[in-house]
Amino acid sequence: MEPTGRIRLFRSSSAAIDAESLSVAMLDGWRNAQRAQCFQERTTHRRHRSVERFIDWSGKYPWQWTQLEAEDFFGELRGIHHRSTATVRAIQNDLSLFLAYAADQAYPWAAHCSELLGEPFVPIAPRRIVHRQEGPESPVKRPFSTTELQAFFDFADDEVERILRSGLRGGLAAYRDAVAFKVMYAWGLRRRELCHLKVVDFSRNIRAPRFGTWGVLRVRYGKAMRGSPSKQRTVLTVFDWSATAVSDWVERGLPRFQNEDGWLFPTERGAVLDGRSLLRRMQQYVTALELPSGLDLHSFRRSYANHIQLEWGFDTHFAKDQLGHEHASTTAIYTIATPDYRARELDRVLGATLERAAALPHSNRGDGRP
């Protein structure tokens, strides 16, 4: 016992330790090290699962891994299981972080391997897919066109009416999801940001009184930077119809839910809305409308980034702040000019050129024409 009264236990020099216990202790220590760096629990759990997956696949402990086994493992993920490049890159990064932690001399794991097990810990260096350029992870993913978006919203509204008229259950949930889709687009939200919205997150914008109570949205669960809490931002309302949609939902739909915590889109039991159920409903609507592939919940955010710049003419810096990006280059990833926009821009530039040419005096044309 120490003078402070704290009891400290020491392992007996004669006590044996097995490889399984040491491996578990390594993983537990790594989990605590990540928590100490304030990583989110879901990130810690994913990394922990990546290491366990490789342990199960190889049948060996971390200090027994070989470079060839690691390359066979990643080759199987790509060639047999057809995992995406982003998934394989994430697992490679998880294993590299774990091995760097386990081999760090500040921790006792390498010494334990040598002293207690008689096996030196020589960490491998898994080859990693290099992220060479900024851009969408998959070229399949895309935004809605304006025509597709309008058709989707109309179908979602009609589906609410269909369920209510049929007398089936689920009309209220369909109404909630229809408004949630519109909110996700109208304020350029990610799935997690949408699901954690509360009614009190809306407030007035004194410079845009026509939106009433719904002029500004405070997003409190934005995408976090590494080892940091959720990033917060404010998003200004830009569409008149969006304020009307939210106001109607809060007045007519929301009171029908159990909602002690004030969520904007709660479940029937008053819990946080599950983004997976929202994705399933979206996929049903996309299939029913026979829309081309490449659309997911993030397509609403992609569409917002495109439309406010290319269709509505807002400045890129404004779009960057609305989306919560650190750099304009990130916003540019979302901005894919549509054929209609390019055609309008071409007409605008050519029209302005013709107007300037028509305004010039005949003597200044320099082409010899009368």
Automatic annotation (TrEMBL):
Q: Tell me the protein's name.
A: Tyr recombinase domain-containing protein
Q: Name one Pfam family in it.
A: Phage_integrase
Organism, per UniProt?
A: Agrococcus versicolor
The family note in this entry says: Belongs to the 'phage' integrase family.
Q: Does the keyword Hydrolase apply?
A: no
Q: Which residues form the Tyr recombinase domain?
A: 139-347
Keywords for this protein: DNA recombination, DNA-binding
Q: Which PROSITE patterns match?
A: TYR_RECOMBINASE
